[in-house]
Design brief:
single chain; 635 residues; alpha+beta; five-stranded antiparallel sheet; 19 helices
């Protein structure tokens, strides 16, 4: 028995072509968004094409797990939207195949993509992350003249701290320059102040050329005796222009990757589990050591025997030890020594406890990051399947193909996922939420959404049918469409004008009788409205009669008759009698304040509108019968 049938192959062909295109589009968009964050590290650095190629390659690899869910969401939306718009989905359902059964091949393919995403994150993603971060760190260390911040001391140049008040990147000038030149000894440290300056790389890329303008140089001198016996502690020099060469290897060298390799994003699943076990062992050892130190501090060992120790203690009458009496019996020198040793011991233990607390917090933070990364590998894989069900179901409901509505819906769903996932990550990282809750927040919201839209799509629901919502709100607000009856190009049967005129005359008489009997301009009895409702079949019968006459006269070729037909209002048959069809809803609405009052006023408005509609129908009936009589007289 074949696993994939012709329908599965057909659906896969439709999906795979779109998936390939949407994947590269999604990957490109995510890469541009990532590139925008680091554009300052690339521009003006003189990077070779090989380095740029490596940067874009590893950046693309790192973005693949994020691009896969978005590509599946967009491709499934467009695929099912195209099938629904071309009525192919209707034909599939008409043949007795349910929606889920028709999606069988795509579901298997989505599970396959989810598995590939997990394998990619576990095997290829960590190395790509290491290489990309290594390149970014190396780029930041290259051409430091562009990295010098304003109004902050910059220590990226070996041997000196540089302060710049203002930068002009267009001219390449630095203003308000202050330099602290540091050496191994503070005896010959120098402070350089300059009004402006320019920092450039030399041709060999091994030095930085710093040209300063309008400044002063203060420098400590080593202790030495000059001729004449005068000692000079420092020297001061004023200059209009001065050039300083600083040792700095400005070539592109890869940074050390040992620190980067310890990051959670640079670890595979087995490595993350191993690191968590190591952290637990270190944390347990710290806890045991803290417990041991506390016991030592609380119960210190003494060289004297218990009997000799008790002799020196002053006991109260009840047998308890009075430490105050022991302290007062000591000499002032001994009291001062006791207080000093106690204070030093407390301070030492406090500092040691704080240090161990910081170490424990650091280990706890690293453990959270490792656990977050473990869950992230599974979340990004499961989201591929969830996004498929959301996209395929919404596409089957909306039935709009192309890149219009599907792109908008995909962006909205992905933004929802990104906000929830990023919020959960931040809260879990700082310890406000547990790790499983923070990383599972997005799935906890999207899984019910996927189940809901899949159920609605499988039941052919109109939950996302804009026309249904438009009709509902028009009925709620009392709005209605106007008639738009146009002349027909082909007419098979001409109208029976004489019979239609008789029916319209009889309808006018019934309308006059109904208006006199029901008093539509008066307020109705609220008890009858909400608790003793009786249907008004007379209006329903008159509205049906009118629609039959309009349908028959719609076959006319006379433009005056068509004009009169379009003047007939669309009669609301039930809104003037009660708010709801269900009796218990009417009773509940009457009890709940102020809903009952609002619905009562709304119903009164419909009664008044019905009164005017009936008057309009009677007036148009007279015009219509008069026109029909003139047509017969003409013939």
């Amino acid at each position: 028995m074949r696993i994939f049938k012709k329908l599965d192959i057909f659906m896969l062909r439709q999906f795979l072509m779109l998936f390939a295109g949407t994947f590269f589009i999604s990957l490109f968009v995510l890469m541009m968004q990532f590139l925008w964050r680091y554009v300052d590290d690339l521009i003006g650095k003189g990077l070779s094409l090989e380095v740029l190629g490596q940067f874009f390659w590893y950046m693309g690899l790192m973005m693949v797990p994020q691009a896969l869910p978005l590509a599946i969401l967009l491709a499934s939306l467009i695929t099912m939207g195209n099938l629904g718009e071309s009525s192919e989905l209707t034909a599939i359902k008409a043949s007795g195949i349910s929606l889920l059964k028709s999606l069988r091949g795509l579901i298997i393919f989505s599970c396959f993509i989810a598995g590939c995403s997990f394998i990619f994150q576990n095997n290829i993603g960590p190395n790509a992350n290491i290489q990309l971060r290594q390149l970014l760190l190396s780029m930041k260390q290259k051409s430091p003249e562009l990295e010098i911040p304003e109004e902050i001391f910059y220590a990226g140049i070996p041997g000196c701290n540089l302060y710049v008040q203002h930068k002009d990147l267009d001219k390449g000038m630095l203003y308000g320059v202050m330099i602290y030149r540091m050496t191994e000894s503070f005896e010959d440290a120098a402070i350089i102040l300059a009004d402006s300056g320019r920092l450039q790389s030399t041709a060999d890329k091994m030095h930085l050329k710093l040209t300063l303008y309008s400044g002063e140089w203060f420098e400590n001198m080593r202790s030495q005796e000059l001729a004449g016996g005068a000692s000079v502690p420092y020297r001061r020099e004023s200059f209009m222009a001065k050039v300083i060469l600083l040792d700095f290897d400005n070539g592109f060298n890869l940074a050390e990757a040992s620190g980067i390799a310890q990051m959670a994003q640079a670890q595979s699943l087995p490595q993350l589990v191993l690191h968590i076990d190591s952290i637990h062992q270190v944390g347990d050892s710290i806890g045991r050591q803290v417990a041991h130190d506390i016991r030592q501090f609380s119960f210190p060992s003494t060289k004297t025997s218990k009997k000799d120790s008790l002799k020196s203690l002053a006991k109260a009458e009840d047998g308890t030890v009075n430490f105050d009496s022991i302290f007062t019996k000591q000499s002032p020198e001994q009291q001062r020594d006791i207080l000093q040793r106690a204070g030093n011991r407390i301070q030492t233990n406090t500092m040691d406890t704080e240090f161990r607390g910081l170490a424990a917090h650091d280990y706890n933070q690293r453990e959270r990051e490792y656990r977050i990364e473990i869950l992230n590998k599974f979340v990004l894989s499961i989201v591929c399947i969830v996004f498929f069900f959301i996209g395929a179901s919404l596409g089957a409901i909306i039935r709009k193909g192309g890149l219009g509505v599907p792109v908008i819906i995909s962006v909205l769903v992905f933004i929802l996922f990104y906000i929830l996932d990023n919020t959960g990550y931040r809260m879990a990282q700082q310890g406000s939420w547990t790790v499983w809750f923070g990383k599972g927040l997005a799935l906890a919201v999207l899984l019910p959404l996927a189940s809901f839209v899949t159920y609605k799509a499988n039941k052919d629901s109109v939950v996302f049918n804009m026309d249904a919502y438009r009709t509902f709100f028009m009925r709620l607000l009392g709005l209605r469409l106007k008639r738009n009856i146009a002349s027909k190009e082909v007419i098979i049967n001409d109208p029976d004008y004489r019979r239609d005129a008789e029916r319209l005359n009889a309808l006018s008489v019934e309308i006059d009788h109904y208006s006199e009997e029901h008093h539509l301009k008066h307020l109705p009895n609220p008890i009858n409205v909400f608790f003793r409702y009786k249907p008004d079949h007379e209006v329903e019968r008159m509205a049906t009669e009118l629609e039959e006459v309009i349908e028959d006269l719609g076959n006319t070729r006379d433009r005056y008759v068509l004009s009169y037909l379009n003047q007939y209002p669309v009669v609301s048959e039930k809104a003037h009698t009660r708010p709801f069809d269900t009796p218990w809803l009417n009773k509940a609405a009457a009890i709940i304040f102020p809903i009952g009052i609002i619905l009562y006023i709304r119903m009164c408005r419909f009664r008044l509108r019905l009164y005017h509609d009936l008057k309009q129908i009677s007036r148009v009936n007279g015009q219509m019968t008069e026109r029909i009589s003139s047509m017969h007289n003409a013939f």
